[in-house]
Amino acid sequence: MTQPNAIVGMSGGVDSSVAAWRLLQEGYACMGVTMRLYDSADAGIPESTCCSLDDVEDARSVAHRLGIPHYVFNFQDIFREQVMEKFVRSYEAGLTPNPCIDCNRYLKFSALLHRAQVLGCEYVASGHYARIRRDPETGRYLLCRAKDSAKDQTYFLACLEQDQLAHILFPLGDLTKEEVREIANQQGFLNARKRDSQDICFVPDGDYGAFLERFTGKAYPPGNYLDLQGNVLGQHRGAVRYTLGQRKGLGIALGAPAYVCRKDMAANTVTLGPSQALFSPALRASDWVWFPFPELTEPLRVTAKTRHSQLEQPATVFPEEGGLARVVFDQPQRAVTSGQAVVLYQGELVIGGGTIVQALGE
Predict the structure, then answer these.
(1) pLDDT tens track for 16-32
(2) Angle subtended at Cα 278 by Cα 260 and Cα 150, rounded to the nearest 5 degrees
(3) Which of 139, 167, 220, 278 could bridge 238 with an S-S bond, Cβ 3.0-4.6 Å?
(4) Per residue, what are the HEC states of 291-302?
């Protein structure tokens, strides 16, 4: 029987290192690959971040310890076009994008998968916390939650298509984070206690406005803060710097808590209001990927997340024309944001994921 083979995306972190070790235990022939996604100079950030030389060396050290080859693939052009430039366009259009989802969609499980197939590898594996199963009746690949609910990453993976899932392995799906670190300790991996990355890799300081100015060379002009009635309250530092629901960093005192409720990019205005103005009973989303079935044909009871950190909320999803779907929540939800993902669940099963295009009122 031919030994199955896999390219393992090795970031230099503990998760991808243990993913490679586990596949070797399961009899796979593995090749470790670190993707070079951007130069730090592109984002104007220090070298000690994702894609740094230290990360590459950590990945190479683990690969050497495991006895597998390790390579660095340069995907900077694709990452710049599909992730960084899309991030900029989205913010300039008043949206709040999720570049981690785009990286999974276009880089880790598209460009890397294509490279794997060119090299004769059947699978791409990663250290994501999620599980893939196959429905024996329909033959469809299903995306399911990880054992470790605190680390579950299915929200970021609900963009994956059937032909991608057929060639993806998530070896950590049935492990907890502490079990992963214990394995790394036992194997003597130098990154066993390495801190997890938390921020967008090319905006590690979280200052999106500063990144946009560095990347584009533009100066985003100040504009007016408005209240819900359209009255001018003061001046903001450029509408691209603000996200729906934001309270901190507004630089204006109104005598009561104020939150970003709307942005008008053409007029360069930011509307502020109380927290209760942020709640929406429903949303409309596009670019859906469905897992148990090829398309949604009738209303379905689900739970839904509009942010990775959000607790799931009971809802009903309704099909609409043009590939759209409407998600109606049992209770109104706060700061439903265009450009972000909405992901639907039934228990441990991911039903589907789409991109929010509109928060809907009553």
Answers:
(1) 999 999 999 999 999 99
(2) 95
(3) 220
(4) CCCCCCCCCEEE
Residue 212 lies in a domain: no
Same domain (yes/no): 100, 150: yes
DSSP letter (8 states) at residue 258: -
Enter the pTM of the model: 0.93
Give the residue from 187, 210, 239 where a domain finishes.
Answer: 187
Report the candidate in 43, 91, 87, 84 with the shortest Cα–Cα distance to residue 240: 91
Catalytic residue among 51, 103, 121, 159: 103
Each residue's pLDDT tens digit, 63-76: 999 999 999 999 99
* Measured distance CA(16)–CA(62) in Å, rounded: 10
| Structure tokens belonging to residue 162 | 């059937």
* Active-site residue, selected from the candidate residues 51, 121, 144, 201: 201
3-class DSSP state of 154: helix
Count of Cβ atoms closer than 10 Å to residue 246 Cβ: 17
**Residues 231 and 349 placed together within one structural domain of the fold:** no
Q: How far is residue 199 CA from its own chain's centroid?
A: 11
159 assigned to active site: no
| Residue 45: pLDDT over 70 | no
In the annotation, is 121 catalytic? no
